[in-house]
Structures are given as structure tokens and as C-alpha cells.
């Protein structure tokens, strides 16, 4: 019988060893995944004992140089025998959609969510982790790393002011490096209210329904691009080498797409014979309709893809707060397998089922301005340890060459023309070279237009210092009249910062 | 050094660890070590000292590790329960005192020869079945958390399943010793009682909806059957019958179905119909709420744990985050506060306990003693596996207690009875070995 007993004994001990293995699994392997789950309140409460790093932005010059506007900091509060660190957002609604929030009740959003590991210091090297453990034994709180963003808070403020009570968004970055300068979305919300006064956020109303104040329209708002997409179509046309800026077209004032007559925006005066350059300058639908039908949808969409469509635009914010641009079918991103599935003529001037984000359109303008090279947008300039040493600094990185330098130069010249003597006149700034493209996507309902302006701008003779996209919902007027002035004001703030007093 | 002197040394070591654990819980709670700490440590220490003295008298040759292990496990349990809820800890300390009393009674009563129990094996068998079914007697049983496991005796609530388990082990040890020859040959008429046991355990499962206890009892039965006969076939057939029976009952018993579903898919990406409430929600917010929160608690511990008294079990407002923390889920509290190091350490204590118990079964002289020791020891191991495995999502979660550690009177008492029997078997075996 002893042999049997021994076997039962080994089985019993095997069961217990399995418990040790399973415990190890949950406490080591599965730990990060469980910690990142949104319903993990334990992790969240535990992390409130950590002195979270601050989130700051370099102010562009309204106060002393090197001054940083604090976007998120801690306020300690004694709860029971513990000191808990709650978040304060001194700038309120200014950069709410980028910074996000970290609360007990409603999890996290924005950089507070995606950079949680950095801000709580839980991604440190083994050496500093040991130090951290020793500190916590001594009763000191764990201190996280701070994040310095690339945001220009003055320009950000201008963007919010200009958007005002309208629903819309502004995204602006430096096309030479990819530094994100402005990311504003309206209606905005005060992240300080998320924890205890959330009803004040959910009761925010605006010129659009739903107002969705928590939605970051700049990177997660999908809008029909309207005529701003003509920049992509024109790029595809030049890249195909079947057209030059001087190629001539005949504009009858409308275009027949799938048997339906699509008129130009301004039907009062057909242009007759005109060049591609003039067509972009004055945003003539019928020309792009013709180009679209000649090139086919897939070819245009391939060019769009090289501008970054069909992938989530890179940024340090959480992935689900950034949406890819492209054709959407039944709510899903969709790349056609056959040209015949898409009305290429209407797609070419921004209709069909195209949906884009402002961030993506700023990237289009940026790549054109930057000689065809698309830089990777980033909003984290550097990560700073509690002892003020730099843990990590973001280096500019190029995504790819979107179009050839020649195409970029030609399209850029057309966009400059559109601002100097075309639809985008409201964006002109003396002393700077500004190229832009307006867009007005009609929804068919009066007063429900989505208006756009995308642009690049910089000192004469230099590569542009800023690329921008502005979108507005529920407008009665055109992009040139509504969005272009906002773009101009924000670019002014970036290019001509108020001098130091 | 005699076995008893070694036991005393071991007890003192366990006492040191326990005193340190109590001290750290006290410091975490009030910032200082107060007199209360010394009172608790002293009280627990003197209880086990009494137990030690009685063992010295009644089971002088018994294994010197078992009692200190039990002391250490109760100390770990007490310090965690105190940290979670001081009132429960006070009651638990009373139960430990009563448990030590029961241990003393068992040791004293059976000090000459525990093998008298074998004579009453059928009485034990019948009592076991009666006890198991008693919660379903109208007017006697009460339902807690949808499971009928409790008997209400006026001021006292009591889980008869815990006692039934020991009775069943005694019965099986006697019965299998009798019939092992014929069973090993596979005579059909001896298989009858085994089928009866299978039927009884299924009946209990239906009556109580308690998968955990059914699995535990049936597992002990199979282990003892295998030890007695050496026939893998029986184990295979038994497992097949149990799994088959449970599967057949799967749809008939919504509670069993719920447990299995929660085990397989604790997280859902879409809202599902909840079993427990008539709402549609993510499963992690309704049915698997407990399991998921417990896993978060374990994960939060990491390698080193948060330290005793430092774990997160409440929201900032003081609302509890994990239900049933000091009974079913005490392991997830241990794993959070003591980390992988401490949790593995606790499992290691059980491992040593089981290894010593199996050794007793090996060296015991007669079949009854061997089977008794094996049954009791395997019971410890399997019970630990079922509850901790359930908390770790290794097996479906069923509410049974962690031996010596969980809060709960019935469980503590039955653990001490088992411990007493093991000490007696061990003492007799060692005495015989020394006489030779």
C-alpha cells in the first residue's frame, strides 16, 4: 500500500505546487495587464498613494522665458492614516483633451492614462525600483516622473477663444519636427470637475448635439473633409505624372458623377477653360471630379495612405482617443478592393464616405509644407525625474516621404495662391508665407455645414514653422469665412508670440 | 533532542514569526505597538503551549512539526483577519481557543488507542450522510449566499459538512481496510457501496448546490480508494462519473453553470445578461465581480507585497472593494499584503504539513491508520487547492475555507479534530518504530 500512498502524496504536493505557479503567474506575468484594466479600482486606489509626476507645458513667452504652465499637479490630502495625492488641473479646460484626467471614480483619460506608468514611476529601471522600495519602507511616498509637453499654451488659449461657443477643433504642429503645438477641441470641459461634479460636465451644451465635451474632436472627431481633400487628390494627380499644374480642364460648372449632377460650390460663374493650379486656387469641384474619375479611387486613396490615412495618427495620447481617417462603411474603416465600389468623382473633392480628423488634415498640410516629408507628431518633449534629470527626450522622427519634393513644391505653391488670391484670403499674414485650403462639407441641411481650413505658414524663404487644421461643425457659411480666420489667429500666436514685457 | 522538545523549539520559532506579524499589523493600524499586541501574542502562545503540554502527555512520539505549523497558520490567519476586521478576529481567537480545547479532548479521549473508532465505522458513515443532508431539513437549515450549508442551532450557526468530512474519512478508512483485497480484485458486489457514495455525493450536490464540498469529499474518497486498492481504473471511473454527473446537472443547477461560466470568461467586452441580477452589464461588474477584484488584489501585491496592514481593500471612501475577504478570499488578502514571497511561503507551510502527513501514512503500521492519515492529509491538500485554486482562477471558484487560516468556527474546529487524529496516528507509528 505504501507505493500507492506515496503516489497520492506526490499528487497532493503537486496540487499545492500548482498553486505557487498560478500565484506567480498573476503576480508577475499578468500583473501589468491587470493593472491597466479600467475596472481595476484596487490599482487605482493604490496609485493615489504615489506622488504622481506633474504635466507641464512650455509657455511660449507671455511670462518669463523658461516658465512652464503647469497643466496637472497634485494636492495631498490625509485620508485615514494615509496621505493620498489627488490631481489638480490649474489650467482647467485649456488643454483638457490632451492632458485628460486621473480620478478615483472615473478612471483616466488623455496623457494621464497613456503615460500612467511614467507618471507613477512604475516603468523605472530595476535599480531605481529597488531604491523606490527602500523609500517606501522608510515611509516616503513613491514619486513619479514629470512630463514636459510641446504644447504652446498661449496659442492653445487663442484657439479655444477663437472657437468660442462653436463646436470644433484645432490641431497645429511644427511640420519640420512633428512637435504638437495646439490641440484644442470645443466644447471643452474642466477636468477638475470629473471626480465630484461630473454632472456639470454632462450638462454642458453647445451649438451641436450631442455636445460630447469629453470627445477630443482634434484627433477622435471624424468629419467629412470637403474641399480640403482636394490637396490629396491634386497630389495624387501630380504623382501620377499624368497631370502638371498647368494641365488645362474645361469647367462646365458641374460634374456628372454616377448620373447625378454635382454642381460647383459657386454655380453662378463657370470657369470655362482653366489650369489645375487655378482649380485648386478657386476650389473648382468639376475639375477634381474629372481627375478622380480618371485616376480611380484606389490611386487617390494610396496617396492619402502615404499622408497617414488608414492608420491611427501617432501621438502619445491613448490609441482609442485617436481615430484613423479614410473611407468609412457602416461605421468601419474600409479600403475598397475595386475602383467600381467608390464614386471616385465625388470622393476626389471630399465627398463620398470620407471621414477625417483635424490632426490628419494638419499632417497633410504639414507634409506639403515640409517638402513632402511627413514627420511623426509628438506631444511629449521630455520626461523628467523627481531629481530633475532627463529620463527621456523625444527626438523628431520622420514617418515617410508622403509625396515627391516636386509635388510638394507645386501643391504648396497652389495653396499659397489660394491664400493670396483665392478662397483662403482670410488667412493671409503680412511677412509670412501662408498656404492653405478651405473646405465646406455640406450635409444637405441648412446651417449644418462642416467647414475647414488647413494651412502651413512660416517666414518667407524658410520651411513652414507651423501646419494647422481647423474644423467647425454646424456652420451656415464657408470654410474661408469661418475657419480661415481662426487658423490665422492661432498661427499668428505661434509665429509672432507676444513680446516679453 | 526528543520529538516534544523539538516541537517546543518549533513552536517558539512560530511564536516569533507570529509576534512580528501581529506587531506589524498593529503598527500599520495605529502607528505604535500597544499592550493589545502583547495580549494577543501571549494569548495565542499560551493556547499552543497548553496544546503542547497535552500532546507531551497523550501523544509523546508524535510528529514535532504539525502543531507548530498549525500554530503558524492560525497566527497568519488571525493577523490578517484582525487587519481586515478586528471584531471578527476576536471571535476567531475564541474559536481557536475552542479548537485547541477540542484538540485536547480528542487527544485525551483517544490517548490509549484511537483505533476504537474503526469499530463504529458504519455509524460514522451513516452520520456523515445524515449530517451532509441536515441543512436541507426544513426549519434546520439556513441559506447563506444561495448555498445551503448551514444548520441553525439557535444562537449558533454551524456547517455540518466540515464534521461530515471527518466522519466520512473515518468510515472510509475502516471500510476500505476491510474490503481492499476484494476491491482490488474487482468483485462487482463490493463496488455497490462505492456507487452509493457517488450517488450520495451527487445528492448532496443537488441539495446544497455546493460544488466545492462535493468535489472535496469525492476527491478524498478517490484518493483513499486508490491508496487502498492501487487501481487507477477506479480513479478514472470515479472521475468520469463525477464529471459526467456534474455535466448532467450543469443545466439543471443554474448556480453550477454560473460558476463555470464565470471561471471561463470572467471578463466580457460586451454587456451580457447577468445570472445574479436581472440586469445586462459587463460580467466583471456583476457575476465575476468577486473573482476579478480578488485577482486585482493578488496582482497588486507583486513580488514583495504591500506589507501587512498596507494593502488596498477599500475605496478612498472606505467602502469594501472585495467581498468575503476574511473567509473565501483570504488568500487574495495574503497575496496582496505579503506578495509572492509571502503567499508562496504560506503555500509552503501547507506543503510541509502535507508532506509530514503523508509520511505518517507511510510509517503507520496498520491499514486503518494508514488510510486515516492519508485521508485527513489529502483532505487538507485538496481543500487548500480548491479554494486557493478557485481564487487564482485555476478551477471554478467555490466557497470553502482555507484550513486554519480562514475566518469560521466550524472549519477551525474540524481542522483541530483532524490535527488531533494525525498526531495520535503519528505517535503510535513512531512508538512502534522505536520499539522495534
Counted beta strands of chain A: 22
Strand order of the largest sheet of chain B: 1-2-3
Count up the domains of chain A: 2
Using only C-alpha atoms, the radius of gyration of chain B works out to 22 Å
What is the H/E string of chain B?
A: HHHHHEEEHHHHHEEHHHH
Mean of all residue-level pLDDT scores of chain B: 86
How would you sum up this structure, described in words?
The complex is a heterodimer of chains A (501) and B (436). The longest helix of chain A is centred in the N-terminal third of the chain and has 28 residues, at 2-29. The termini of chain A are far apart. Chain A has 501 residues and is of the alpha+beta class. In chain A, helix 11 packs across helix 14 (297-306). Chain A folds into two domains: 40-150, Penicillin-binding protein 2a (Domain 2) (Alpha-Beta Complex); 154-495, DD-peptidase/beta-lactamase superfamily (Beta-lactamase). In chain A, a hairpin with a 5-residue loop joins strand 17 and strand 18. The radius of gyration of chain A is 26 Å and the shape is elongated. Mean pLDDT of chain A is 87; it is low at 60-66. Chain A has 18 helices and 22 strands. Chain B is mainly alpha-helical. Chain B has a domain at 115-252. Helix content of chain B is 69%, strand content 4%. Chain B has 14 helices and five strands. Chain B has a three-stranded antiparallel sheet, with no helix packed on it. A two-stranded antiparallel sheet of chain B has the order 4-5. In chain B, strand 4 and strand 5 (280-281) form a beta hairpin. Chain B is globular, with a radius of gyration of 22 Å. The model of chain B has no long low-confidence stretch (mean pLDDT 86).
Amino acid at each position: 500500500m505504501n507505493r500507492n500512498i506515496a503516489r497520492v502524496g506526490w499528487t497532493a504536493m503537486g496540487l499545492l505546487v500548482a498553486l505557487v505557479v498560478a500565484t506567480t503567474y498573476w503576480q508577475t506575468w499578468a500583473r501589468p495587464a491587470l493593472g491597466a484594466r479600467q475596472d481595476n479600482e484596487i490599482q487605482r486606489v493604490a496609485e493615489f498613494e504615489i506622488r504622481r509626476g506633474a504635466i507641464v507645458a512650455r509657455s511660449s513667452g507671455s511670462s518669463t522665458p523658461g516658465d512652464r504652465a503647469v497643466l496637472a499637479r497634485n494636492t495631498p490630502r490625509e485620508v485615514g492614516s494615509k496621505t493620498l495625492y489627488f490631481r489638480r488641473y490649474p489650467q482647467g479646460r485649456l488643454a483638457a483633451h490632451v492632458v485628460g484626467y486621473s480620478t478615483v471614480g472615473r478612471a483616466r483619460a488623455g496623457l494621464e492614462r497613456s503615460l500612467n506608468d511614467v507618471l507613477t514611476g512604475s516603468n523605472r529601471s530595476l535599480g531605481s525600483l529597488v531604491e523606490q522600495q527602500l523609500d517606501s519602507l522608510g515611509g516616503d511616498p513613491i514619486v513619479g516622473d514629470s512630463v514636459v509637453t510641446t504644447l504652446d499654451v498661449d496659442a492653445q488659449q487663442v484657439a479655444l477663444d477663437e472657437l468660442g461657443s462653436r463646436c470644433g477643433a484645432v490641431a497645429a504642429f511644427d511640420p519640420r519636427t512633428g512637435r504638437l503645438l495646439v490641440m484644442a477641441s470645443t466644447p471643452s470641459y474642466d477636468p477638475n470637475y470629473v471626480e465630484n461634479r461630473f454632472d456639470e460636465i454632462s450638462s454642458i451644451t453647445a451649438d451641436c448635439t450631442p455636445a460630447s465635451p469629453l470627445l477630443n474632436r482634434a484627433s477622435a472627431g471624424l468629419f467629412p473633409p470637403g474641399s480640403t481633400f482636394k490637396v490629396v487628390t491634386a497630389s495624387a494627380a501630380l504623382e501620377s505624372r499624368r497631370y502638371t499644374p498647368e494641365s488645362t480642364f474645361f469647367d462646365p460648372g458641374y460634374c456628372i458623377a454616377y448620373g447625378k449632377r454635382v454642381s460647383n460650390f459657386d454655380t453662378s460663374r463657370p470657369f470655362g477653360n482653366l489650369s489645375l493650379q487655378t482649380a485648386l486656387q478657386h476650389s473648382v469641384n468639376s475639375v477634381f471630379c474629372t481627375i478622380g474619375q480618371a485616376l480611380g479611387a484606389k490611386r487617390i486613396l494610396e496617396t492619402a495612405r502615404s499622408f497617414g490615412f488608414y492608420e491611427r495618427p501617432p501621438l502619445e495620447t491613448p490609441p482609442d482617443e485617436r481615430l484613423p481617417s479614410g473611407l468609412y462603411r457602416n461605421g468601419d474603416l474600409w479600403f475598397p478592393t475595386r475602383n467600381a465600389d467608390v464614386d471616385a468623382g465625388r470622393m476626389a473633392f471630399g465627398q463620398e464616405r470620407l471621414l477625417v480628423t483635424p490632426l490628419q488634415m494638419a499632417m497633410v498640410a504639414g507634409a506639403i509644407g515640409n517638402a513632402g516629408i511627413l514627420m511623426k507628431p509628438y506631444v511629449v518633449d521630455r520626461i523628467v525625474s523627481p531629481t530633475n534629470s532627463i529620463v527621456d527626450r523625444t527626438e523628431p522622427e520622420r514617418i515617410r516621404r508622403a509625396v515627391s519634393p516636386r509635388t510638394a513644391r507645386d501643391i504648396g505653391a497652389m495653396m499659397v495662391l489660394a491664400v493670396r488670391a483665392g478662397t483662403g484670403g482670410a488667412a493671409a499674414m503680412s511677412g509670412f508665407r501662408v498656404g492653405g485650403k478651405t473646405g465646406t462639407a455640406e450635409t444637405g441641411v441648412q446651417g449644418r455645414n462642416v467647414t475647414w481650413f488647413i494651412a502651413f505658414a512660416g517666414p518667407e524663404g524658410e520651411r513652414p514653422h507651423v501646419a494647422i487644421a481647423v474644423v467647425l461643425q454646424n456652420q451656415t457659411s464657408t470654410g474661408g469665412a469661418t475657419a480661415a480666420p481662426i487658423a490665422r489667429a492661432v498661427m499668428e500666436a505661434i509665429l509672432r508670440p507676444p513680446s516679453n514685457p | 533532542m526528543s520529538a516534544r522538545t523539538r516541537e517546543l523549539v518549533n513552536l517558539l520559532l512560530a511564536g516569533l514569526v507570529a509576534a512580528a506579524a501581529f506587531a506589524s499589523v498593529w503598527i500599520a493600524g495605529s502607528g505604535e505597538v500597544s499592550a493589545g499586541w502583547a495580549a494577543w501574542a501571549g494569548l495565542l502562545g499560551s493556547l499552543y503551549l497548553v496544546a503542547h503540554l497535552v500532546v507531551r502527555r497523550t501523544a509523546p512520539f508524535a510528529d514535532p512539526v504539525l502543531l507548530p505549523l498549525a500554530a503558524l497558520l492560525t497566527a497568519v490567519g488571525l493577523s490578517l483577519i484582525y487587519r481586515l476586521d478586528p471584531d471578527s478576529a476576536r471571535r476567531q481567537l475564541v474559536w481557536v481557543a475552542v479548537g485547541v480545547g477540542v484538540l485536547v479532548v480528542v487527544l485525551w479521549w483517544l490517548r490509549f488507542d484511537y483505533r476504537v473508532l474503526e469499530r463504529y465505522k458504519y455509524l460514522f458513515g451513516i452520520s456523515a450522510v445524515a449530517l451532509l443532508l441536515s441543512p436541507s431539513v426544513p426549519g434546520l437549515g439556513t441559506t447563506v449566499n444561495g448555498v445551503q450549508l448551514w444548520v441553525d442551532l439557535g444562537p449558533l450557526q454551524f456547517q455540518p459538512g466540515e464534521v461530515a468530512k471527518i466522519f466520512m474519512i473515518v468510515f472510509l478508512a475502516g471500510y476500505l481496510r476491510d474490503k481492499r483485497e476484494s476491491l482490488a480484485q474487482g468483485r462487482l458486489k463490493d463496488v455497490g457501496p462505492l456507487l452509493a457514495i457517488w450517488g450520495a455525493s451527487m445528492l448532496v450536490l443537488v441539495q446544497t448546490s455546493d460544488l466545492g464540498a462535493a468535489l472535496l469529499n469525492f476527491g478524498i474518497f478517490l484518493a483513499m480508494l486508490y491508496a487502498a486498492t492501487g487501481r487507477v481504473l477506479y480513479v478514472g471511473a470515479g472521475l468520469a462519473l463525477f464529471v459526467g454527473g456534474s455535466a448532467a446537472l450543469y443545466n439543471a443547477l443554474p448556480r453550477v453553470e454560473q460558476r463555470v461560466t464565470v471561471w471561463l470568461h470572467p471578463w466580457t467586452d460586451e454587456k451580457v445578461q447577468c445570472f445574479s441580477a436581472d440586469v445586462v452589464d459587463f460580467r466583471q461588474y456583476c457575476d465575476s465581480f468577486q473573482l476579478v477584484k480578488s485577482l486585482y488584489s493578488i496582482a497588486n501585491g507583486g513580488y514583495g507585497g504591500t506589507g501587512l496592514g498596507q494593502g488596498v481593500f477599500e475605496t478612498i471612501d472606505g467602502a469594501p472593494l472585495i467581498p468575503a475577504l476574511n473567509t473565501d478570499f483570504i488568500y487574495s488578502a495574503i497575496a496582496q499584503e505579503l506578495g509572492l514571497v509571502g503567499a508562496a511561503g504560506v503555500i509552503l507551510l501547507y506543503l510541509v504539513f502535507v508532506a509530514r502527513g503523508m509520511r505518517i501514512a507511510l510509517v503507520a503500521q496498520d491499514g486503518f491508520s494508514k488510510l486515516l492519515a492519508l485521508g485527513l492529509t489529502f483532505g487538507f491538500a485538496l481543500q487548500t487547492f480548491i479554494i486557493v485554486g478557485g481564487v487564482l482562477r485555476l478551477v471554478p471558484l467555490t466557497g470553502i475555507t482555507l484550513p486554519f487560516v480562514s475566518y469560521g468556527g466550524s472549519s477551525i474546529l474540524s481542522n483541530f479534530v483532524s490535527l488531533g487524529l494525525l498526531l495520535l496516528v503519528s505517535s503510535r507509528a513512531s512508538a512502534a518504530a522505536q520499539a522495534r
